[in-house]
Amino acid sequence: MNPQALHLDAAYAATTEFGRPLVNSMFTLSTLVGLSVAQLTQGTLVANLGFSEIAFPAPLFHGDTLYAETLVVDKRPSRSRPGQGVVTLAHTGRNQDGTVVATAQRSTLVRTTPEPEAAS
Q1: How far is CA 13 from CA 5, 6, 117, in A?
Q2: Structural domain count, the chain
Q3: What is the pTM of this model?
């Protein structure tokens, strides 16, 4: 719910240094992280613990394509939760030209052992 004219008003955005509306950076971040879910955390995530080092080095424009890559940069067993661990992920988002438009580190709590299967 960011009503910033730079994101919503094409006439206003045309008067800025960007010349057209930008995608809201929080939408860019959530899409970047969301693109990793199916491959990395679906069915294993317990909680997001936090984000750090978030940056938007270049704008993402409406109509651009967002490509995402994620690297596991650290992992360790949880000190207080048996069967769970803390994994740190580095997310990078690029547009269709390969320009980096967003980066973020995310700390997650994940299951390290499968959940018991429900009795049938």
Answers
A1: 7, 5, 53
A2: 1
A3: 0.87
At 15-48, the pLDDT tens digits run: 999 999 999 999 999 999 999 988 888 888 999 9
**CATH number of the domain where residue 106 is located:** 3.10.129.10
Residue 47 falls inside a structural domain: yes
- For tokens 């596991």, the residue is 72
Given this model, what pLDDT does residue 117 score?
65
Q: What are φ and ψ of residue 17, in 5° steps? A: -65, -20
Residue 109's pLDDT is: 96
Report the 3 state secondary structure along the chain: CCCCHHHHCHHHHCCCCCCCCECCHHHHHHHHHHCCHHHHCCCCEEEEEEEEEEECCCCCECCCCCEEEEEEEEEEECCCCCCEEEEEEEEEEECCCCCEEEEEEEEEEEECCCCCCCCC
